[in-house]
Protein backbone atom coordinates (compact mmCIF):
# COMPACT_ATOMS: atom_id res chain seq x y z
CA UNK A 1 0.00 0.00 0.00
CA UNK A 2 1.45 3.38 -1.02
CA UNK A 3 1.32 6.31 1.37
CA UNK A 4 -1.12 9.20 0.87
CA UNK A 5 -1.64 12.10 3.28
CA UNK A 6 -5.10 11.90 4.84
CA UNK A 7 -7.02 12.98 7.92
CA UNK A 8 -8.32 10.64 10.59
CA UNK A 9 -11.83 10.66 9.10
CA UNK A 10 -10.46 9.32 5.81
CA UNK A 11 -10.50 12.64 3.99
CA UNK A 12 -7.68 12.74 1.45
CA UNK A 13 -5.26 15.64 1.83
CA UNK A 14 -4.36 17.05 -1.58
CA UNK A 15 -0.74 17.91 -0.78
CA UNK A 16 2.10 16.12 -2.52
CA UNK A 17 4.28 13.96 -0.29
CA UNK A 18 7.31 16.16 0.34
CA UNK A 19 10.43 15.89 2.43
CA UNK A 20 10.52 14.74 6.05
CA UNK A 21 12.47 17.11 8.30
CA UNK A 22 13.66 15.49 11.53
CA UNK A 23 14.83 17.06 14.77
CA UNK A 24 17.43 14.88 16.45
CA UNK A 25 17.99 14.72 20.22
CA UNK A 26 15.05 17.00 21.00
CA UNK A 27 14.35 15.21 24.30
CA UNK A 28 17.19 15.33 26.82
CA UNK A 29 16.54 11.87 28.28
CA UNK A 30 16.64 10.28 24.84
CA UNK A 31 19.99 11.91 24.10
CA UNK A 32 21.29 10.52 27.40
CA UNK A 33 20.03 6.98 26.75
CA UNK A 34 22.13 6.82 23.57
CA UNK A 35 25.07 8.53 25.29
CA UNK A 36 24.82 11.51 22.94
CA UNK A 37 25.60 15.11 23.88
CA UNK A 38 22.62 17.43 24.15
CA UNK A 39 22.83 19.86 21.21
CA UNK A 40 22.99 23.60 21.84
CA UNK A 41 20.70 24.27 18.86
CA UNK A 42 18.26 22.10 16.88
CA UNK A 43 19.93 19.14 15.16
CA UNK A 44 18.27 18.78 11.76
CA UNK A 45 18.38 16.07 9.14
CA UNK A 46 16.11 15.18 6.23
CA UNK A 47 14.51 11.96 5.05
CA UNK A 48 13.20 11.81 1.46
CA UNK A 49 9.48 11.39 0.89
CA UNK A 50 10.27 8.07 -0.78
CA UNK A 51 10.98 6.52 2.63
CA UNK A 52 7.41 7.09 3.92
CA UNK A 53 5.06 4.12 4.28
CA UNK A 54 1.59 3.86 5.86
CA UNK A 55 1.12 2.40 9.34
CA UNK A 56 -2.18 0.81 8.36
CA UNK A 57 -1.98 -2.91 7.64
CA UNK A 58 1.49 -3.32 9.10
CA UNK A 59 4.94 -2.49 7.77
CA UNK A 60 8.18 -4.29 6.98
CA UNK A 61 11.66 -3.70 8.37
CA UNK A 62 15.05 -4.53 6.76
CA UNK A 63 16.19 -7.14 9.28
CA UNK A 64 19.20 -8.09 7.13
CA UNK A 65 20.89 -4.75 7.95
CA UNK A 66 21.21 -5.16 11.71
CA UNK A 67 19.10 -3.72 14.52
CA UNK A 68 16.10 -1.61 13.47
CA UNK A 69 15.10 0.77 16.27
CA UNK A 70 11.74 2.46 16.71
CA UNK A 71 11.47 6.14 17.62
CA UNK A 72 7.91 7.39 18.23
CA UNK A 73 7.52 11.06 17.34
CA UNK A 74 4.89 13.76 17.01
CA UNK A 75 4.60 14.45 13.28
CA UNK A 76 3.53 17.87 12.02
CA UNK A 77 2.05 18.21 8.52
CA UNK A 78 2.84 21.48 6.76
CA UNK A 79 -0.09 22.91 4.79
CA UNK A 80 1.22 26.30 3.64
CA UNK A 81 4.65 27.53 2.48
CA UNK A 82 6.99 28.81 5.16
CA UNK A 83 10.29 30.59 4.66
CA UNK A 84 12.45 33.48 5.85
CA UNK A 85 11.77 33.84 9.57
CA UNK A 86 8.00 33.28 9.81
CA UNK A 87 6.12 34.66 12.79
CA UNK A 88 4.51 32.43 15.41
CA UNK A 89 1.11 33.22 13.87
CA UNK A 90 2.32 32.24 10.39
CA UNK A 91 3.67 28.93 11.71
CA UNK A 92 0.44 28.10 13.52
CA UNK A 93 -1.55 28.96 10.40
CA UNK A 94 0.66 26.73 8.23
CA UNK A 95 0.20 23.60 10.37
CA UNK A 96 -2.35 21.30 8.76
CA UNK A 97 -2.33 18.37 11.19
CA UNK A 98 -0.62 16.16 13.74
CA UNK A 99 0.02 12.42 13.87
CA UNK A 100 2.03 9.90 15.87
CA UNK A 101 4.85 8.68 13.61
CA UNK A 102 7.65 6.15 13.71
CA UNK A 103 11.12 7.28 12.74
CA UNK A 104 12.99 4.01 12.11
CA UNK A 105 16.76 3.81 12.44
CA UNK A 106 19.27 1.17 11.43
CA UNK A 107 21.11 1.55 14.72
CA UNK A 108 24.13 -0.64 13.93
CA UNK A 109 24.60 1.12 10.60
CA UNK A 110 24.22 4.52 12.27
CA UNK A 111 26.83 3.67 14.91
CA UNK A 112 29.39 2.81 12.23
CA UNK A 113 28.62 6.00 10.30
CA UNK A 114 28.96 8.13 13.44
CA UNK A 115 32.31 6.51 14.27
CA UNK A 116 33.61 7.65 10.88
CA UNK A 117 32.01 11.10 11.09
CA UNK A 118 29.82 10.33 8.07
CA UNK A 119 26.22 11.42 7.31
CA UNK A 120 23.34 9.26 8.56
CA UNK A 121 21.32 8.77 5.36
CA UNK A 122 22.06 5.05 5.04
CA UNK A 123 20.68 4.55 8.56
CA UNK A 124 17.76 6.96 8.38
CA UNK A 125 16.52 7.21 4.79
CA UNK A 126 15.97 3.63 3.64
CA UNK A 127 12.62 2.65 2.10
CA UNK A 128 10.14 2.35 4.96
CA UNK A 129 12.17 4.46 7.39
CA UNK A 130 9.22 6.76 8.18
CA UNK A 131 5.91 5.17 9.14
CA UNK A 132 2.90 7.51 9.16
CA UNK A 133 -0.78 7.08 10.07
CA UNK A 134 -3.53 9.61 9.25
CA UNK A 135 -3.40 13.10 10.78
CA UNK A 136 -5.81 14.85 13.12
CA UNK A 137 -6.62 18.43 12.11
CA UNK A 138 -4.40 21.15 13.52
CA UNK A 139 -7.00 22.73 15.80
CA UNK A 140 -7.29 19.45 17.73
CA UNK A 141 -4.56 20.92 19.94
CA UNK A 142 -4.86 24.45 21.27
CA UNK A 143 -1.66 24.18 23.31
CA UNK A 144 1.20 22.80 21.21
CA UNK A 145 3.38 22.54 24.32
CA UNK A 146 1.08 19.83 25.69
CA UNK A 147 0.77 17.05 23.10
CA UNK A 148 1.34 13.48 24.25
CA UNK A 149 3.07 10.73 22.27
CA UNK A 150 2.91 7.07 23.31
CA UNK A 151 4.09 3.77 21.85
CA UNK A 152 3.20 0.34 23.22
CA UNK A 153 4.70 -2.89 21.90
CA UNK A 154 3.17 -6.27 22.67
CA UNK A 155 1.03 -4.69 25.39
CA UNK A 156 3.90 -2.87 27.14
CA UNK A 157 4.32 0.91 27.06
CA UNK A 158 7.80 1.61 25.70
CA UNK A 159 7.66 5.37 25.13
CA UNK A 160 5.41 7.88 26.84
CA UNK A 161 6.36 11.50 26.26
CA UNK A 162 4.90 14.95 25.80
CA UNK A 163 5.83 17.99 23.74
CA UNK A 164 6.34 19.81 27.06
CA UNK A 165 9.58 17.79 27.36
CA UNK A 166 11.04 19.08 24.09
CA UNK A 167 14.25 21.05 24.23
CA UNK A 168 13.02 22.95 21.16
CA UNK A 169 9.21 23.41 21.20
CA UNK A 170 7.18 22.85 18.07
CA UNK A 171 6.57 26.43 16.93
CA UNK A 172 10.09 27.78 17.62
CA UNK A 173 11.75 24.79 15.97
CA UNK A 174 9.62 25.23 12.84
CA UNK A 175 10.64 28.91 12.80
CA UNK A 176 14.27 27.74 13.04
CA UNK A 177 13.85 25.30 10.15
CA UNK A 178 12.14 27.86 7.91
CA UNK A 179 14.92 30.36 8.58
CA UNK A 180 17.36 27.95 6.91
CA UNK A 181 15.27 26.39 4.11
CA UNK A 182 11.71 26.60 2.84
CA UNK A 183 8.94 24.31 3.98
CA UNK A 184 6.23 23.44 1.46
CA UNK A 185 2.72 21.98 1.65
CA UNK A 186 3.05 18.22 2.10
CA UNK A 187 6.31 18.39 4.04
CA UNK A 188 6.32 16.55 7.36
CA UNK A 189 8.28 17.50 10.47
CA UNK A 190 9.25 14.80 12.96
CA UNK A 191 9.78 16.64 16.23
CA UNK A 192 12.03 14.20 18.10
CA UNK A 193 11.57 11.11 20.23
CA UNK A 194 11.28 10.67 24.00
CA UNK A 195 13.29 8.17 26.03
CA UNK A 196 12.63 4.46 25.55
CA UNK A 197 13.81 3.64 22.03
CA UNK A 198 14.73 0.06 21.21
CA UNK A 199 14.71 -2.70 18.57
CA UNK A 200 11.73 -3.86 16.56
CA UNK A 201 11.20 -7.51 15.70
CA UNK A 202 9.04 -9.20 13.09
CA UNK A 203 5.68 -10.03 14.67
CA UNK A 204 5.69 -7.17 17.18
CA UNK A 205 2.22 -5.74 17.81
CA UNK A 206 2.19 -1.94 18.14
CA UNK A 207 -0.17 0.71 19.46
CA UNK A 208 0.86 4.23 18.48
CA UNK A 209 -1.08 7.21 19.75
CA UNK A 210 -1.45 10.87 20.50
CA UNK A 211 -3.34 10.19 23.74
CA UNK A 212 -6.84 11.64 23.66
CA UNK A 213 -6.62 12.50 19.94
CA UNK A 214 -5.72 9.44 17.85
CA UNK A 215 -4.83 5.79 18.38
CA UNK A 216 -3.60 3.24 15.83
CA UNK A 217 -2.79 -0.47 15.93
CA UNK A 218 -0.26 -2.06 13.62
CA UNK A 219 2.35 -4.80 13.46
CA UNK A 220 5.79 -5.53 12.08
CA UNK A 221 5.44 -7.88 9.10
TrEMBL record:
| GO molecular function terms attached to this record | acetylpyruvate hydrolase activity; isomerase activity; metal ion binding
> What InterPro entries is this protein classified in?
Fumarylacetoacetase-like_C (IPR011234), Fumarylacetoacetase_C_sf (IPR036663)
Sorted alphabetically, the keyword list is: Isomerase, Metal-binding
- Can you give the residue ranges of the Fumarylacetoacetase-like C-terminal domain? 19-220
Q: Which top-rank group of organisms is this from?
A: Bacteria
One Pfam family this sequence matches: FAA_hydrolase
Q: Which family does it belong to?
A: Belongs to the hydratase/decarboxylase family.
Question: Could you identify this protein by its name?
Answer: Isomerase/hydrolase
Task: Provide the species name.
Answer: Pseudomonas guariconensis
